[in-house]
Write the structure tokens for this entry.
Amino acid sequence: MKADVSLYIKGFDICESDKKPQKTARSSIGHIKAGAPWDILAIDFLGPLPRIKRDNKYVLVLTDHFTNMWR
């Protein structure tokens, strides 16, 4: 059976088992430098999430890049 499978696989130009992983080009991640508090803010919005007692289903997070403070 192993010989049959090998012969069958050799019949294809490209075989999944012989494929090399494809590497995609990635850009380098730069650092964000803020000069003062409230200079640069990051905003993350999550949801919809399961509702809680206060009937909220979304989360909004603000992060200050200078102090790393979040609310």
